[in-house]
């Protein structure tokens, strides 16, 4: 965020630059060499005038960028740390206040110190996402990730107030953090065809692409279709549509994430149909399709995996009440992995 002193400096610089240039242009219109020489002198003077207020030109360009509004935080992040993002450790919370299951997570000290991985505070998250449009599309898993994000960005009372609207059945939801210009959209898109249409049609009509795009599917397909190959075909369409998602402006594509399937605890599922169709074998088959369809960055695809399956297995059976949806601990871990990944990607794009 640009300080008040910097804003005053910019205003003063504009006065110094444009008022004399306007007068010079009026009086020296017949002597273009003299006019442009004067303009060059004034421009240099403005640069000197602004230099005490603005730390560096790349930082100024990043702040004013209309493509990726993500502001990197000082750290030792590098692409070699991406594979380590999901290596979190779980432990019982002695206070029993972190999530419903009384479980907490952390990165091992060696990984945290080597890569600079850390929980992102509310203030740092607001700076990181300053001016960004975040879109999360999918099923109930995606809703829970949105809730984790809003709990981080908003004060507790405001975050609690959004839950009834956010969890309105089969509906979209939009929230905003006006002080930071952050927009958060949840799009109800439980099937792969919904996501493909969102990427291929709906977002093409939007004024610009989201800065951060998180999508995921599979649970509804597993329950209502139950064919892994058909699911894989849908993933291929999503990958193709995501690759072609470009803004009409010459800007980078969104930061894209794939929300993986959670661990399913079969005997805890709440209907006979779910217990019959949603088992470990089906989850393995569906996960294999994600691996093989060119969806993920590690395979040349557009999406970085948010491995909910690994995180939910780490948290354990005590972190779910229905065998499918997990306590806030898991989605808090997903969120912070995503935010740390955004810092890495933002550093790489500078």
What's this, in brief?
Keywords: Membrane, Transmembrane, Transmembrane helix. The protein has 350 residues and is of the alpha/beta class.
Task: Name a few traits of the molecule.
single chain, 350 residues, alpha/beta, Rossmann fold, 2 domains, six-stranded mixed β-sheet, two-stranded antiparallel sheet, 14 helices, disordered N terminus
Q: What does this protein look like?
A:
Strands 4-5-3-6-7-8 form a 6-stranded mixed beta sheet, with helices on one face. Strands 1-2 form a two-stranded antiparallel ribbon. The protein is built from 14 helices and 8 strands. The protein has helices spanning 4-27, 32-50, 57-64, 109-115, 122-128, 140-153, 156-166, 192-202, 219-224, 228-243, 272-277, 280-292, 308-315, 328-349; strands at 89-92, 103-106, 133-138, 173-177, 182-188, 212-215, 255-259, 304-306. The protein has 2 domains: 4-54; 79-349, Rossmann fold (3-Layer(aba) Sandwich). By secondary structure, it is α/β, with parallel strands linked by helices. Mean pLDDT is 82; it is low at 1-6, 28-37, 44-68, 72-76 and 95-101. A hairpin with a 4-residue loop joins strand 4 and strand 5 (182-188).
Secondary-structure topology with pairs:
Blueprint: H1 4-27, H2 32-50, H3 57-64, E1 89-92, E2 103-106, H4 109-115, H5 122-128, E3 133-138, H6 140-153, H7 156-166, E4 173-177, E5 182-188, H8 192-202, E6 212-215, H9 219-224, H10 228-243, E7 255-259, H11 272-277, H12 280-292, E8 304-306, H13 308-315, H14 328-349
Parallel strand pairs: 3-5, 3-6, 6-7, 7-8
Antiparallel strand pairs: 1-2, 4-5
Helix pairs in contact: 1-2, 6-7, 6-14, 8-10, 10-12, 13-14
């Amino acid at each position: 965020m640009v300080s008040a002193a910097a804003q005053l400096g910019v205003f003063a610089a504009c006065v110094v630059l444009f008022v004399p240039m306007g007068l010079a242009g009026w009086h020296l219109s017949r002597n273009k060499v003299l006019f442009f020489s004067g303009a060059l002198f004034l421009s240099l003077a403005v640069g000197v005038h602004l230099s005490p207020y603005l730390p560096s030109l790349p930082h100024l360009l990043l702040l004013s960028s209309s493509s990726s509004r993500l502001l990197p935080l000082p750290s030792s992040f590098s692409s070699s740390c991406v594979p380590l993002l999901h290596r979190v450790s779980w432990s019982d919370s002695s206070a029993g206040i972190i999530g419903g299951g009384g479980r907490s997570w952390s990165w091992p000290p060696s990984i945290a110190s080597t890569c600079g991985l850390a929980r992102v505070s509310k203030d740092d998250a607001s700076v990181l996402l300053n001016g960004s449009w975040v879109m999360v599309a999918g099923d109930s898993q995606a809703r829970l990730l949105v809730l984790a994000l809003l709990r981080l960005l908003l004060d507790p009372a405001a975050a609690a107030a959004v839950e009834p609207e956010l969890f309105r059945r089969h509906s979209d939801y939009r929230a905003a953090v006006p002080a930071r210009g952050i927009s958060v959209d949840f799009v109800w898109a439980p099937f792969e065809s919904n996501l493909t249409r969102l990427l291929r049609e709906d977002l093409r009509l939007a004024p610009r692409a989201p800065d951060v795009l998180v999508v995921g599917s599979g649970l509804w397909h597993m329950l209502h279709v139950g064919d892994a190959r058909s699911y894989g075909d849908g993933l291929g369409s999503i990958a193709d549509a995501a690759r072609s998602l470009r803004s009409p402006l010459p800007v980078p594509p969104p930061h894209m994430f794939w929300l993986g399937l959670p661990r399913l605890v079969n005997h805890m599922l709440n209907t006979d149909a779910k217990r019959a169709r949603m088992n470990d074998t089906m989850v393995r088959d569906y996960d294999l399709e994600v691996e093989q369809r060119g969806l993920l960055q590690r395979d040349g695809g557009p999406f970085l995996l948010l491995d909910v399956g690994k995180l939910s297995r780490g948290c354990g059976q005590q972190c779910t009440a229905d065998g499918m949806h997990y306590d806030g601990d898991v989605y808090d871990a997903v969120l912070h992995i995503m935010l740390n990944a955004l810092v890495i990607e933002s550093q790489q794009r500078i």
